[in-house]
Design brief:
Blueprint: E1 2-7, H1 11-20, E2 26-29, E3 44-46, E4 60-64, E5 66-70, E6 76-80, E7 86-89, H2 91-100, E8 105-107, E9 112-117, E10 122-126, E11 129-138, H3 145-150, E12 156-165, E13 173-177, E14 186-191, E15 196-202, H4 207-214, E16 220-228, E17 234-235, E18 238-240, H5 256-276, H6 281-311, H7 314-325, H8 328-331, H9 342-347
Parallel strand pairs: 1-2, 1-11, 2-8, 5-13, 11-18
Antiparallel strand pairs: 3-7, 4-7, 5-6, 9-10, 10-11, 12-15, 12-16, 13-14, 14-15, 17-18
Helix pairs in contact: 1-2, 1-5, 5-6
The structure holds flavin-adenine dinucleotide.
Flavin-adenine dinucleotide binds near residues 42, 140 and 254.
């Protein structure tokens, strides 16, 4: 019997495995035959990534210094840092390297089909047979089967679309467009070095909107879903981490740094759970309290802002841009991930 079975070998599942395997016997289940595929992530990740892994040159397609935000009627706000603020990462290469660092067994083409938490174990049905463990960790992404069985759902699920164009672009700013005629989220352009990425996020965004707005002709399509607003993340003998728990930044949909942050919290709680032999819902609720301390305020503020933003028309958005222009000194100091955390407030 395994101590922990992790469903999903995305960045969060693999990072969690790397942390847990120091003390526990771990198995990772991945439904696909290759790590990192399919890839539907922009991989724009802040320098906070350096706090989790050593950055490898081979993943980094470009380095970003800041962002240009465009209003519906042509205003611009420039947010920039003195040096590199974020990396444009090739997610396939990143995930593959994370897997290389994991010593535990990673079973490919092994889809989690069902599970039942029993008195002393979790019985897991996979496409490759039955497995047993003491704790099941759902890192199985936005359509998480584990979350579904726990009845845990994000507040919203948005479409994330990417159009990759073979246009060399080594620029050091990403561009973002906010316009309700296009989407209730935003559109973006990311310089990826050898490529340019056009993309967007929104509740009913379609590729036609990207094609029309960016005047796209030939491009490679990638599409995924982004959970917004976390659901419950624990139950008896089960935890959820990453997109499976809806742990993403509400204002951008980015989930890598939040997922890794929560994986660390989970590893600490699980270590204690194994020491005490306590896998009850009550004990595991400490995980949710822990991750909320790290990212809860940012998510709550983001959800409040999103609720307001969804009701705003373009004229009001324009007014926000007019005001925002005078606050650029503050915006330049904001941490991309931990907007309301002590570290950002201390710097501003
Ligand atoms: C268009 C788009 C752009 C994005 N851009 C960014 C960005 O720039 N920066 C950023 O930080 N985030 C971005 N994100 C979000 C980011 O991709 C996710 O937050 C991140 O991948 C979450 O990692 P995860 O490990 O939790 O889940 P995932 O990466 O989704 O991994 C889940 C894994 O579980 C496997 N799985 C699923 N179900 C099962 C099952 N039943 N059994 C076994 N395995 C299973 C899947 O195959 C997958 O490998 C973007 C998302 C989209 C859609």
């Amino acid at each position: 019997m395994f101590d922990c079975i992790i469903a999903g070998a995305g960045p969060v599942g693999l990072y969690t495995a790397g942390m847990l395997e120091k003390k526990l016997k771990v198995l990772v289940l991945e439904e696909h035959g290759r790590i990192g595929r399919p890839n539907h992530c922009s991989g724009l990740i802040s320098r906070n990534l350096e706090g989790f892994v050593r950055i490898r040159k081979r993943w980094v397609e470009n380095e970003i210094r800041g962002a240009i935000l465009h209003s519906p009627f042509g205003r611009e706000i420039r947010v920039e840092k003195p040096g590199t603020a974020a990396f444009v990462i090739n997610r396939e290469e990143f995930d593959k390297d994370l897997e290389k660092g994991v010593k535990s067994q990673v079973e490919l083409n092994a889809r989690l089909l069902d599970f039942s938490a029993e008195r002393d174990r979790v019985k897991i049905k996979t496409s490759k047979g039955v497995r047993e463990c003491k704790m099941l960790i759902g890192c199985d992404g936005v359509n998480s089967l584990v979350a579904g069985k726990l009845g845990s759902r994000p507040r919203e699920i948005l479409n994330g679309l990417i159009a990759l164009v073979k246009e060399e672009n080594h620029g050091d700013f990403v561009e973002l467009w906010f316009d309700k005629r296009l989407t209730d989220g935003f559109l973006w352009k990311i310089p990826r070095g050898n490529m340019t990425e056009y993309g967007g996020l929104g509740s009913s965004l379609k590729f036609q909107t990207l094609e029309k707005f960016f005047k796209l002709k030939g491009y490679e399509k990638r599409a995924g879903l982004v959970p917004i607003g976390p659901g419950k993340s624990y139950s008896e003998r089960v935890l959820l981490i990453g997109d499976a728990a809806g742990q993403t930044k509400v204002w951008s949909g980015g989930g890598v740094i939040y997922g890794l942050t929560c994986a660390r919290v989970a590893a600490g709680v699980l270590e204690k759970a194994f020491e005490k032999g306590d896998f009850t819902e009550k004990f595991l609720s400490g995980y949710e309290r822990g991750w909320k301390k790290e990212i809860g305020k940012g998510i709550a503020a983001g959800l409040m802002f999103r609720k307001i933003y969804k009701r705003l028309g373009n004229r009001r958005i324009e007014v926000i841009f007019r005001t925002g222009k005078h606050l650029d000194f503050l915006m330049n100091k904001l941490d991309m991930d931990f907007i309301l955390s002590k570290r950002t407030l201390a710097r501003s």
